[in-house]
Amino acid sequence: MIRRGIAFAAIGALALTAAACGEGSKGSGSGGTPKVGLITKTETNPFFVKMREGAQKQAAADGLQLMTAAGKFDGDNESQVTAIENMVAAGVKGILITPSDTKAIIPAIAKARAKDVLVIALDTPTDPQDGTDALFATDNFKAGELIGQYAKAKSAGTTPKIAMLDLAPGVSVGILRHNGFLKGFGAANVDAKASKAVTAPQVVCAADTAGDQAKGQSAMETCLQKAPDLNIVYTINEPAALGAYTALKAKGLEKKVLIVSVDGGCTGVKGVKDGQIAATSQQYPLKMASLGVDAVAKFAKDGTKATGYTDTGVTLITDKSVPGVEAKDTAFGLQNCWG
C-alpha cells in the first residue's frame, strides 16, 4: 500500500495520502500531473494492499499522481464520503472505490460525477450498479457458484447441513457470493439479480462475520452449538474460513466438515494446500486496480469514459478436484495470489 504523501487532517481517522507518480503537484486543472484517487474499505486487508500495489504501478506507468484513502473498518461509509469530497476538492480526474455501504455511498458519488469526475467501482458494485460510471470486478456470483458446485460434488451421498458464514446485511458482494453458492449447490433457484440473500432448507445456521477471522471463529462456535452435526461451511472469505477451521479443530471436527471460501489470497491458498480449506475461488485485485487506473488515464487524456462491467476473472483453487468442476491446483494459486 502507498502510505506516503500529503496528509489531509480534515478526514480524521481516515488515512488519505497522495503518492507522487510523476512531477507536478496541482493536478491537471493547473497544468500539473493528473490525479487519480483510490478509496478502499480498509487499509490493512491484504486484498486492498494488492489493489493499491496495482494502482501505484499503473499510475506510474500512465503518468498519474495517485491519492489513496481507506476507512477504519469494513462498513465505514462516513470516511469514504469524506474521502470522495477531499479528492474532488484536490482536482482528481477519476476515483476508484470499493464501496463499504453500496447504497449509502451513492449520493456522494453522484456529486462527484456531476463535477465531471469519472467514478469506477472496484470489486464491489454499488446498489444500483449504474451508480458509478463503470465496474471492474470479479463475478462474485460465479465465485460463489464455483464453490457451491464443488461442495455439492464433494459431499455427494451425504445429507448436507450447511453453515453460511456471511459478510454483513445488505452488502452486494456478500449477497452475490452467498446466493451464488446456494445456486451452485443446487439448494436455491436464484440469480445474480437478486437484491437479498436467500436461504434454503439445507442451511442449518447463518451468521455474519464482517470477513474477520476472530468473528469467523465466534460465528462457527455459535453454529456448532446450534447444529453440532453440520458438515459444510460456506465462508465469505478466507479469514472467516480460517476462523471457522480454528473452531472446528477445537472440537475435533476439522476432518469431518468441508470448508469452502472466496478470495485467493496467499494465506488462503496456503490454507487450501494445508487442508484447512477444501477449495477457494481466487480473484485478482491487482488487475482490477490497474485496469481502473488505466481507464482514468484515458479519460484524463481525451475524455473517453469507461462504461459497464468488466469481469476481471475468477478461478477455483483446490488440490482435490472433482469431476465436472473446472479448477486449478494450489501451485497455480500461489503463483497468482496476493497478500
From TrEMBL:
<keyword id="KW-0732">Signal</keyword>
<comment type="similarity">
    <text>Belongs to the bacterial solute-binding protein 2 family.</text>
</comment>
<protein>
    <submittedName>
        <fullName>Sugar ABC transporter substrate-binding protein</fullName>
    </submittedName>
</protein>
<feature type="domain" description="Periplasmic binding protein">
    <location>
        <begin position="36"/>
        <end position="301"/>
    </location>
</feature>
<dbReference type="InterPro" id="IPR025997">
    <property type="entry name" value="SBP_2_dom"/>
</dbReference>
<dbReference type="GO" id="GO:0030313">
    <property type="term" value="C:cell envelope"/>
</dbReference>
<dbReference type="GO" id="GO:0030246">
    <property type="term" value="F:carbohydrate binding"/>
</dbReference>
<dbReference type="Pfam" id="PF13407">
    <property type="entry name" value="Peripla_BP_4"/>
</dbReference>
<feature type="signal peptide">
    <location>
        <begin position="1"/>
        <end position="20"/>
    </location>
</feature>
<dbReference type="InterPro" id="IPR028082">
    <property type="entry name" value="Peripla_BP_I"/>
</dbReference>
